[in-house]
Predict the 3D structure of the following.
Amino acid sequence: MRDVAVVGFEQSPCVRREQNRNEVEVLVPVLRALREQTGVAGADCDFICSGSSDYLAGQSFAFVSGLDAVGAWPPVSESHVEMDGAWALYEAWVKIQMGQAETALVYGFGKPSMGDLPMTMALQLDPYCVMPLWPDAISMAGLQARHCLDAGVLTEREMAAAAARDRRHAMQNSNAQLRWDRSVDEILAEPYLANPLRKSDCAPISDGASAILLAAGDRAREICERPAWIRGIEHICEPIDLGVRDLGRSRSTQIAAEKAGVGSGKIDVAELSAPFTHQEILVERALGLSLDSSSQTVVNPSGGALAGNPLMAVGLSRIGECASRIFSGEADRGVAHATSGPCLQQNLICVLEGE
Amino acid sequence: MSDRQMDGDKPSEHDEDVTLLRVPVSLDYDYSAGVSASRFLRGIEQGKLLGQRCPVDGRVYFPSRGSCPQHAVTFGDETVDLSDKGTIVTFSIVRVPSANIPLELPYIAVNVVLDGADTILMHVLDANPEDVHMGMRVQAVWKPREEWTTSTANILYFRAIDEPDADYDQYKEHI
Ligand SMILES: [Zn+2]
């Protein structure tokens, strides 16, 4: 295996609605900032890979315009995934492993505010038996949370604690959208939005973009003083049929974490992309992160997806948030998580380490 | 077996298999054109054709998307006023109807480079198919002023003007 590292990370602020700017206009300053941070222009990278969704943009091949922000002439080697940018990063990592690139630009962007996001998300469901019922994403997550409570997997108080912790952490993150300090009891006093989910149990709808630069070996050391080396990266998918899955745990996260080697060292920082509090708890447990205060792991120092949720960039941003804490020396080893599909169907785990 | 559709007209019988399911899918979007396209559209509402100049090589993009797709730099707020006259660089005589183009056949699809611009504009030409040719000088024919909106449809079509053909060298890069 080649040594590949995250050597740069930039993101736009997460906002409820980018009223004026289109996706490319949100992306351009992010890529410019990444170029300034790393000294490497996107178009000079050996490979470029992006993550976005035409369903969010409401037009086909919307990702092509994203290349305006890169400068794709003369032609560049480029690819796209209709997934979160974390999976674009995985593709770029494979490309570098194959020896076909030394550097890769990865970006993700989305403006979910243009549509009705919980309904748009219904289109990712089984198209024959589930999607025709148009179950919205919040109700789907609510059913999962209800199952978790009824099965005794977790409690509403634990969910509220996750909601409080992430938004409190986000007070230190100027790019986060939900930044506040409320007590667990205050959150438990909120009315239900989709029983047993309260508004605070849900990630916000966010517009935004983020970008990461990957580099191999010594090239990484040239670009970045303390690269965040990818020691393990894996993604595992569960069946789309909710009826055949155990919704009370995240088996795919657990398998991915084992394959990525999460448990083979201490974890200083974990950045999780779960858009609902009960899902965040399921992911924490699948990663083997201890929940008690004696744990050394700081979970979601950025606030995670619950504080800022720019769909198609949110998972990539978790890798970036984890990496930037390694750049700064704040952390030596961390884990980032990204998710895709309904109720944690597919999960990606990336273990990062400084030298 | 039957091909009955589950579209709500009649309940299906329990002893019949469902072989077809009709699932209409539609989503509504509240689309924003973006800062740059909005500026362009506000211009055309006033009958102005606004391009933007790349700070790296000086090429004028029309319509501008706010940044240079070649150099990945933003254009800022400065605009370049363009003439509604231009040169045909290539064309196609269309004899096949298309659902979203309500023009009488045959019509002439043209790529026009407006004077002062460095990118092509796709539009239609009102001319006899025998007369259209590369290098032909044309001008926009606008809708009546009171019908102008924030739409490129403010230009109905292009029409030939009485000017000598442009030199091939002036437009060859667009072919
Ligand atoms: Zn340029």
